[in-house]
Amino acid sequence: MRRFLLPTALLIAIWLPLPVLAAPCMLVTLTGTMSGPALINGVAGAGTLVRYGDDSAGCGTTKLQFDAGRGTVLRLSQLNIDPGRLDAVFFTHMHSDHTEGFVDLLLARWNWSSSGAKVDVVCSSDVSSPLGFTMSCGKFVTHIGDAFVQSGEIAQRVSEDKRRLAGGPAELAHLITFEPRDEPQVVWTKGDVKVSAIRSTHVAGHASFRVDTPAGSVVIGGDASNDSPAPPRPTSTSAQVERLAQGAEVIVHSTMHPVMGPEHDSGMPPPVYYRQSLTSDLGAMAKRTGAKYLMLTHLAPQVRATHHGPYKVPGGALTEADYRAAAEAGGFTGTTIVGSDLATLRLPAQ
Ligand SMILES: [Zn+2]
């Protein structure tokens, strides 16, 4: 009888365990894709989670949350992420569709992780508008638990569990503010991870962020638009965001589809329309900066919605293809991801 023997080298290759490769990787997840305060079909408020680590740790040693709109903690729970484990939360600006989920997030951390580390909260220092108001992330964070202190709940829960901080959730926030500038500045670091910020325009105090890691770089534009508030202007996108995004693989950006423009009959007030970046202009910007991926989020209007809040979508609901076509009309030839909640991009791609 003939025997079929495998070559010795092949046998060794089969029996030896594969070496564990600790290659760096990054995950970019949209925790919410709603634009503005509108309520549409369970879509969560604006936010992006950036995780970085290596393969053996699920790319998740460092966890950074950018903006925290309505429902952020619920989306994080779907990813099995404990709010107590976030390293830092960054705010692009003080609009409730980007901030209201922070209350939930910090209350959850206070309830279950009061004795743990504080969470870094990184945002613009106070900025006063010539229109007579001041945007203050500092006050927002300092007063985040006030309603629950005033209701008596904080004292009641502290009486049940003395590990909870007596001052409420605000005591768990470590506020880090920066003066927004027209050039990138480093605002946060941890190990291999560096986060930079740049001033951008939408409302006073708006900033955009960039995360650099050995696995790649992602820019979080927020609601940025051009410093010129309305046409005539060369583009609706921000020159500062374009500077920040040079060479980054991924751009995550809020967008307005051109169909909502004043030349159609959406009813959207022109200033609301003009203070976002149009999808076609974002496609052009992503082409110029060399991005491989454009993740569209904060969609106005949402895909398959006939209205955006009180404003109708001229010509009927849009599809993902309509958004991709708009980005491509701007010249973008990379991959356009039309944002839905929990859409995730991995770098490097697998
Ligand atoms: Zn917004």
Q: How would you describe this protein?
A:
The chain is an alpha/beta fold and 350 residues long. The chain has one domain: Metallo-beta-lactamase, Chain A (4-Layer Sandwich), CATH 3.60.15.10. 24% of the residues lie in helices and 27% in strands. The protein is built from 11 helices and 18 strands. It has helices at 8-15, 72-78, 96-99, 101-113, 137-142, 146-150, 153-160, 239-244, 270-274, 279-289, 320-329; strands at residues 24-32, 47-54, 62-66, 88-90, 119-124, 127-128, 134-135, 173-178, 185-190, 193-199, 207-213, 216-220, 250-256, 293-300, 307-308, 311-312, 335-338, 344-347. Strands 8-5-4-3-2-1-18 form a 7-stranded mixed beta sheet. A 7-stranded mixed beta sheet has the order 9-10-11-12-13-14-17. Helix 10 crosses helix 11 (320-329). The longest helix is centred in the N-terminal third of the chain and has 13 residues, at 101-113. It is globular, with a radius of gyration of 22 Å. The N and C termini lie far apart (46 Å). The structure holds zinc ion. Residues 1-22 form the signal peptide. One of its GO terms (molecular function) is 3'-tRNA processing endoribonuclease activity. This is Ribonuclease Z. Keywords: Signal. It comes from Bradyrhizobium macuxiense.
